[in-house]
Amino acid sequence: MSDLIKKVTALLNDKTINAFIGYEKGSADRIRAIFARTEDQAQKLVLNAFCTQNLAGYLMKHEVKKLGKLGILANVAALRSIMQLASEFQIKDGEVYVLFANADGSLTEFTDFKSIETFLQTTDTGIKSEEQEMIAKLESMTVNERWLFWNKEFEKCIKCYACRAACPMCYCHRCTTDVNQPQWIPVASHELGNLDYHLMRAMHLAGRCVNCGECATACPMDIPLNLLTYQLINPIKATFGATAGMKADAMYALSTYKPDDKENFII
Fold this sequence. Notes:
Elements lengths: L2 H11 L5 E7 L5 E6 L2 H4 L19 H4 L4 E5 L1 H12 L8 E6 L5 E4 L2 H9 L7 H11 L3 H12 L7 H5 L24 H15 L8 H5 L6 H6 L2 H8 L27
Parallel strand pairs: 1-3, 3-4
Antiparallel strand pairs: 1-2, 4-5
Helix pairs in contact: 4-5
């Protein structure tokens, strides 16, 4: 029995948690999320190089929250997601039992937000080099070239909302795209509605994106949606000195006013 299975089994048996969010083998040996509530279900837990999904998004799902006290196997992106959710008053300190798998297979337990914050200070939380190269390529384009690039990408969108479902920061009970009185965003998949939806979502994630890339991974049309939100990370940091998902008590940059805030964006 692996250390992970032993630990989760013990946590379930002594009622420290009611359910544990981890990974299991799915069909065709694909990896998928599992919500282990019993010792038998805990036996299905796996941990390997294919276990990369940011599981923190499930913490906000109503049907998952109903399970009771939750435990979760977190990667770096999930740790940052938990910190960001905490800063937005969505998770209380001690509400979620967090396990982190180290490179050597050992487990680190986080029982409070402060220990996660300390860990993240010495951990690589940056954007992957290949993604940085793609962002640099986009930023080297003219405004018109970028406009054409994104419009071409958005033409592929089928409005399945997989990006929204996969994103740990898209937890609104009712999204603007679902409102029909008035109809803010056209429902049908067409040029105008697609552009409205993706730009709205990107702005809602400005200063909140933890660069986990789940939006792009979930997209069945292979739209590089992560690059859209990643491009907003550096401007937010440069302008407001804020980086998402690093502190549980951080204030959201775009909803906080300071007298010394830069105003160079005002035309």
